[in-house]
Amino acid sequence: MTAILSRGVQRLHDAFKKADAEGRAAFMPFMTAGYPSYAKFPELAAELLAHADIMEVGIPYSDPLGDGPTVQRASEQALAGGTSTRASIELIKELRKTHDTPIVIMTYVNPIYAVGPEKFMQLAADAGADGLILPDLPPDQDIEIADLAAKYGLAVIFLIAPTSTPERVKLVTQACTGFVYAVSVTGVTGEREGSALNEVPQMLALAKQHSRVPVVVGFGVKDAQTAHEVAKVADGVVVGSAFINAVERGQDAGALAASIAAGCKR
């Protein structure tokens, strides 16, 4: 039983250890399931997976409070194309057939409850997912989902932000089993001008006082330069909106992923 419970956690931690041993922060690209279409998603995801240490797959949702306009557009397009929560999990199952890279699901609470919490965890685990990022679930308000995730061997990841109090940072970091997701700026996802590090070092220092797991940074990382800034202080670098923007512009998302992955070198 212990091996089952620790499966996702162990795979994620192994990915971070491997990247660190190679002098890198772990590179974590994000892509919305079913974008740019259900049929084209596997090809796009494979381009990102070719350079990823861990892949983050977002379940499209109609009310994504933590997502900026870029990811919202991707979610709307995926939903319009018929990509449901269950269909998103099926896409992860298909990716798992050809890729062994750890995959974490980014989802809000409502899609989990729409499927049923235990059924959702069972489907995610059976598909080969390794963990869940839960941006709208405070870890002290609903322990059922975290407990069910652990039952099915899935790591749980919660978010901290520059506005998080020291007490909140301690609570959240100690609840995370996969890694801690540190939001680099106050606000929603998306590319930004200027440094991605303005408010990060102090937040990471506080998080690492309490965390037993790696701490990654996302929101606002858009290229190799900003990835390198983050890689110097974080265990992992999350990039999402930049890839969606690249697809919308007809640019090569795989080439961008290669460039950003190189920027994660410390």
Automatic annotation (TrEMBL):
Keywords: Amino-acid biosynthesis, Aromatic amino acid biosynthesis, Lyase, Tryptophan biosynthesis. Pfam families: Trp_syntA. The keyword Amino-acid biosynthesis applies. It catalyses: (1S,2R)-1-C-(indol-3-yl)glycerol 3-phosphate + L-serine = D-glyceraldehyde 3-phosphate + L-tryptophan + H2O. Its EC number is 4.2.1.20. The active site is at E56, D67. It is an enzyme of class 4 (lyase). Transmembrane segments: none annotated. Tetramer of two alpha and two beta chains. HAMAP family: Trp_synth_alpha. NCBIfam families: trpA (TIGR00262). This is Tryptophan synthase alpha chain. It comes from Deinococcus xinjiangensis.
